[in-house]
């Protein structure tokens, strides 16, 4: 009985209402960032709908082309890319988009638009055809003022600490949008029956320490010694520190990070022989997810330094990542440092 009355009295807040309420706290705000977030929300609803019925609409499988990273492009990758770009183009606020699926910058109709958007339109492509969670990731920067108005790629090369907002949409057992504008992390669940994202969590906090580690162990032989030691540390029994930890690896960064945000622990994609600079992309995978995790109280480093302070040198650059609960990230860094020092003596 009590739960019925609680359900009755709980006011549902939609993504649009939440964004407007947040904007009203800043009297000088123009509303453009709010509009941009709503545009992404709209594209996400369309992508979510198509993901859910991809098996009957010919959207599964490969497109036949290869992207700038040499990876085979899936039809849903392209569909998501097109939906997000056209949603951003419609509202004339964004001047350029940098997407995993496009080699260079994509100039939008609004050359004077204030924002630059990076995106991974569909993260976890290898999971598309097997019905495992995938997502869209976005990262928003302000365009830097320049005398010469012509937009160039360099305008987009800003460190992650300059992000004004970032987030992701996870197409899982439900569709969830999570974002931050630097004032905490909020999440919204899509109610497909009314087509609205509804607030589910305000001010997410990651646990200080977690007992889940997440890494593709296939490349174990080429890891740094410090990383091998850390994974061994995770596997050793110790009641006091709740070890051995549990291993979980979905293979969609966005889904692995969502679990890490909720349950704590660590996600690692290190450098290896196959990927000497790591596999994941700084600007549209690592920076936005680092912003979210840091806003929730976590940490994200490349093994040595904070990811968000890295000055990018190219729009598609890769970087190793160690991200999650602060205690877990500090522990792996301690072991990486120890072993690096040993190797250099
Ligand atoms: O198969 P691997 O090497 O473990 O790589 C998995 C990683 O690759 C990615 O799928 C790369 O992203 P895309 O699917 O957007 O290219 C990440 O989501 C994931 O964490
Ligand atoms: Mg990706
Ligand atoms: Mg992708």
From TrEMBL:
Its cofactor is Mg(2+). It catalyses: beta-D-fructose 1,6-bisphosphate + H2O = beta-D-fructose 6-phosphate + phosphate. Its EC number is 3.1.3.11. It is an enzyme of class 3 (hydrolase). One of its GO terms (biological process) is fructose 1,6-bisphosphate metabolic process. GO terms for molecular function: fructose 1,6-bisphosphate 1-phosphatase activity; magnesium ion binding. Keywords: Carbohydrate metabolism, Cytoplasm, Hydrolase, Magnesium, Metal-binding. Pfam families: FBPase (PF00316), FBPase_C (PF18913). Binds 2 magnesium ions per subunit. Residues 14-201 form the Fructose-1-6-bisphosphatase class I N-terminal domain. Mg(2+) 1 binds at residues 100, 120, 122. Pathway: Carbohydrate biosynthesis. The keyword ATP-binding does not apply. InterPro entries: FBPase_C_dom, FBPase_class-1, FBPase_N, FBPtase. Residues 206-336 form the Fructose-1-6-bisphosphatase class 1 C-terminal domain. The keyword Hydrolase applies. It is found in: Cytoplasm. Belongs to the FBPase class 1 family. PANTHER family: FRUCTOSE-1,6-BISPHOSPHATASE-RELATED (PTHR11556), SEDOHEPTULOSE-1,7-BISPHOSPHATASE, CHLOROPLASTIC (PTHR11556:SF35). Homotetramer. This is Fructose-1,6-bisphosphatase class 1. It comes from Rhodohalobacter barkolensis. The lineage of its organism: Bacteria, Pseudomonadati, Balneolota, Balneolia, Balneolales.
């Amino acid at each position: 009985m009590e739960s019925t009355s609680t359900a009755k009295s709980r006011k549902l807040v939609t993504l649009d209402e939440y964004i407007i309420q947040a904007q009203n706290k800043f009297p000088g705000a123009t509303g453009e960032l709010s509009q941009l977030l709503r545009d992404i929300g709209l594209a996400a609803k369309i992508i979510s709908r198509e993901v859910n019925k991809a098996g009957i609409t010919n959207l599964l499988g490969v497109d036949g082309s290869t992207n700038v990273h040499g990876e085979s492009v899936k039809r849903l990758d392209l569909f998501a890319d097109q939906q997000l770009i056209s949603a951003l183009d419609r509202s004339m606020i964004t001047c350029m988009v940098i997407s995993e699926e496009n080699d260079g910058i994509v100039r939008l109709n609004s050359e004077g638009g204030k924002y630059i958007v990076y995106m991974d339109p569909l993260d976890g492509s290898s999971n598309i055809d097997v019905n495992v969670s995938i997502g869209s990731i976005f990262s928003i920067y302000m365009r830097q003022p320049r005398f010469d108005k012509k937009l160039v790629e360099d305008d987009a090369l800003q460190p992650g600490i300059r992000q004004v907002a970032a987030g992701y949409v996870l197409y899982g057992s439900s569709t969830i949008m999570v974002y931050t504008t630097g004032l905490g992390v909020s999440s919204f669940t899509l109610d497909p029956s009314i087509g609205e994202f509804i607030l589910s969590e305000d001010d997410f906090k990651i646990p200080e320490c977690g007992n889940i580690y997440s890494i593709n162990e296939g490349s174990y032989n080429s890891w740094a010694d410090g990383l091998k030691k850390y994974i061994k540390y995770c596997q050793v029994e110790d009641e006091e520190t709740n070890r051995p930890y549990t291993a979980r690896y979905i293979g969609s960064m966005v889904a692995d990070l969502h679990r890490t945000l909720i349950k704590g622990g660590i996600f690692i994609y290190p450098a290896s022989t196959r990927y000497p600079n790591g596999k994941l992309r700084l600007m549209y995978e690592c920076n936005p997810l680092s912003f979210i995790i840091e806003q929730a109280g976590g940490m994200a480093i490349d093994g040595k330094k904070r990811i968000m302070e890295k000055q990018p040198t190219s729009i598609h650059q890769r970087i190793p990542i160690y991200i999650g609960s602060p205690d877990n990230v500090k522990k792996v860094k301690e072991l990486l440092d120890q072993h690096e020092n040993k190797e250099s003596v």
